[in-house]
Design a protein that fits this description.
Keywords: Cell membrane, Membrane, Transmembrane, Transmembrane helix. The protein is mostly helical. It contains twelve helices and six strands. The protein is about 70% helix and about 5% strand.
Length: about 325
């Protein structure tokens, strides 16, 4: 039970530590203010959405290094379509999500159908997505201005940077929660989820048992690409711009959230609940270190140690 819920225990431990070490102002702990707590969820929303898709890929024993670049491509696509091509909000969202889905499916086909290692395929995909983002944007960031005139995006798109429920809950956080809940239900109650775990546990046995391994792998990479594109749309809405450099290193943060969440890099074992807890754990850690003005280099060291400890716990976990 301890190993199964290591991410939840870790989140609780880090949360308690954050309370203990939180600076205060006027007698109030800064960490526990509602504004700060929702800022934590907002800060992890993009990485969290990507990490949910990454969980699917890692569960089948794969990896996707292209998700950060896909976020950048989606952010650029959103900005260009809205501002330079005068597309409406819904067509823009549909096109960008379709780009992410197709990109992921193509990577899945290359990996599953042609038996190329996912690491190599998605490393190439990272370069391709960055190149496409640079071509699409002309090699520079595209600012998003809002209004009804030409060259202006619909004001509705700016809501991605706003809060709801009396200005309390960030909209990106709500989207993250919805994505996580849907993924949890999907991985718990469908035949497809059983195929995912079977492939990660023993691909050869799964194939002999009649599991459509190739098809499942392709779909999983498609899901990961789709969610990375969704995170890119949110990113563009929050920052009011799309840049080909957006999402640099996000793939590593997403993998870290999945690993800290207890999902085995060997595949076949893990959950979206753990991934969400892992993303929040890293978000709380980042937040409390920033509140205490800890040097950014030291922050990197601490986060690295947390990831190593989480991976070490997986090695100790009984089979």
């Amino acid at each position: 039970m301890i190993f199964r819920f290591q991410s939840l225990f870790g989140l609780v431990a880090v949360f308690i530590a954050a309370i203990v070490f939180s600076p205060s102002r006027n007698g109030e702990l800064l960490f526990l203010t509602s504004d700060n707590l929702f800022n934590v969820v907002r800060a992890v929303s993009e990485i969290g959405i990507i990490a949910v898709g990454m969980t699917f890929v890692i569960l089948i024993g794969g990896i996707d290094l292209s998700v950060g670049a896909m976020l950048g491509l989606a952010a650029v696509g959103s900005a260009v379509l809205l501002v330079e091509n005068d597309f409406g909000l819904i067509p823009t969202v549909v096109i960008v999500l379709a780009v992410g889905l197709v990109f992921g499916l193509l990577q899945g086909i290359a990996s599953a159908l042609f038996s190329i290692q996912a690491f190599i395929v998605t490393l190439a995909g990272l370069q391709i997505a960055r190149g496409l983002a640079r071509i699409w944007s002309g090699g520079q960031g595209v600012a998003i201005a809002y209004g009804d005139g030409p060259g202006e995006a619909p004001v509705t798109f700016s809501l991605l940077g706003e809060r709801t429920f009396n200005g309390l809950v960030p909209i990106p956080a709500l989207i993250f929660i919805v994505v996580a809940v849907l993924a949890i239900l999907f991985l718990r109650g469908t035949a497809f989820s059983r195929h995912v775990y079977a492939i990660g546990g023993n691909e050869k046995a799964a194939r002999l048992s009649g599991v459509p391994v190739t098809r499942v792998k392709i779909i999983v990479f498609g899901i990961c690409g789709l969610l990375a594109a969704l995170a890119g749309i949110i990113h563009a809405g929050q920052l009011n711009q799309g840049s080909p450099n957006d999402g640099l290193g996000y793939e590593l943060d997403a993998i870290a959230a999945v690993v800290v969440g207890g999902t085995s890099l060997a595949g076949g074992r893990g959950s979206v609940v753990g991934t969400v807890a892992g993303a929040l754990l890293l978000g709380v850690l980042n937040n409390i270190l920033a509140l205490n003005s800890v040097d950014t280099n030291v922050q990197l060291l601490i986060k690295g140690l947390v990831i190593v400890v989480a991976a070490g716990l997986q090695r100790l976990r009984p089979s």
